[in-house]
């Protein structure tokens, strides 16, 4: 996750967040910043809690990943119908219990270690100015549902998990016996004889009657039932091209330039290296060695410390305020005297200085003009939304309020909760937020004006609800008849194969049984689990049954094509000793990792047993806009037999 944090840190959110954290460390001290309190708990594991917003954030992370995998929107209702909510809660609870256990046994990063990790993230500050803007930070973090405490808790958890994993892995090497059994099983060789029963060996079934199709439809109602569809009216408020067509005056440009002057300026930056020291005497020795021309990295290695490097960074990027003041008073190539900073003693060597630059109005005119036009467009959108709100609150319908706001109402075709038409086609422009809102209303219901994206809003009305139902038989007759015919043909193939398998079990040879239908026996020899997947002519069903069969056992299985095979396991032989020995050594690393995963999973399950865990599923459901369950005492508060893995 630290890799993910560092990738995340390249965004403007992280730049502002880390800026706040560094300033907080300097002003209030690390310990105060790292302490956080939660309320409105969805999960409580020992001393750890997960709030409503924390659960919502974790749910949204799961939803976004799943939507990318399945290629369609995932609503809370869909997640609920597939049993995702309790499984996701269990997964999070197990993780929280493990972290509570690690903290209890003393695996917890110190403040200095956390600070070191924060300093290693490159984008701590605004990438343009290098300055921290508390107002922008508050605005952007609010949009992302992030707080400094949230970020620090997850960062500390990740560090603790890394140290825990490092302790498990260090020196861990699976015994040869651990991998020997697996290697013996993988290299075991099997000989298989088989023949196919295909459509030419059985009588074709007659076309189904309507009664048979109706019965078949009822048998497969779960798969054939069409989902609920809704006909929606949608009004959206977003900037229009003409909203940007405003005249930008020189006075407006000058005013905006004066307001933005500080943020548009390029601050002075420096490339430098900072070497920490345990006391003033050590710092003096470091300064002397640097002045004599020694490499800073070599000096730091001799002292057993890590040098802190800043490459073209402004004064505000240096965490220690006193170190920053000293560094920016030096010329290029100079070495500081010992500095007693807020975080301890240090010595700085400056290698490059890039002077700051104040832009002129002409330098930034295009950018400022675009900003002013964007602001004007946003103001026009706001005016239209206010006109809509006033009319809607006054009793006007969605269509009437939209007319008052000079907005266009779009009537969408019947659409499912997955955002598709009855023909299975996606509807352009329909976002998960619109679907979630629309399917939370009753027929005839109208939503309030809701934010869709920054500067964009929408309202939706459910014009008609088409309940979930089986399709009329006439609509699906051809497809249904084809599926029925295939099922009946498979049944006849399986019945014929079972009949021939009984002949072989009764003493006939494979060749004799195959001869009754004019089939030819094929033999696959020296099959092993290690190489079985390379045998394209054998289906997965055949391989599974072949490697679970006993010698001389006869079985039937699905073939690669539309057929059923009758097969007999004719021999089992041990693999070559040399190959097994090589596999044991080659797979020892993999066996060690498997052992590590087993230990880590056992640790997680043990934590669930030892740490008192409480899960409030109904609170989690409320966060997602779902109705509470009738029974509040769910098994989620108990230790699971295995940590579940939510899937779409």
Give a concise summary:
With 648 residues, the chain is of the alpha+beta class.
Structural class: alpha+beta
Q: What is the CATH first-level class name of the largest domain?
A: Mainly Alpha
- Mean pLDDT comes to 82
Count of separate DSSP helical elements: 25
> What summary fits the major beta sheet?
5 strands, antiparallel
The beta-strand count equals 16
The poorly predicted ranges are 1-39, 632-648
| Spatial gap, N to C terminus | 22 Å
Task: Estimate nothing, just give the exact number of structural domains.
Answer: 4
The CATH architecture of the largest domain can be given as Orthogonal Bundle
Q: Please give the share of residues in helix.
A: 40-55%
Q: And the CATH topology of the largest domain?
A: Triger factor/SurA peptide-binding fold
What is the beta-strand fraction? 15-25%
Taking all Cα atoms into account, the compactness measure Rg is 34 Å
The shape is flat
Report on this model:
By secondary structure, the chain is an alpha+beta fold. It folds into four domains: 2-172 and 595-637, Orthogonal Bundle (Triger factor/SurA peptide-binding fold), CATH 1.10.4030; 189-225 and 473-573, Chitinase A, domain 3; 229-241 and 372-466, Chitinase A, domain 3 (Roll), CATH 3.10.50; 267-354, Chitinase A, domain 3. Helix content is 49%, strand content 16%. Strands 4, 9, 10, 11 and 12 form a five-stranded antiparallel β-sheet that branches. Helix 6 packs across helix 24. The two termini are 22 Å apart.
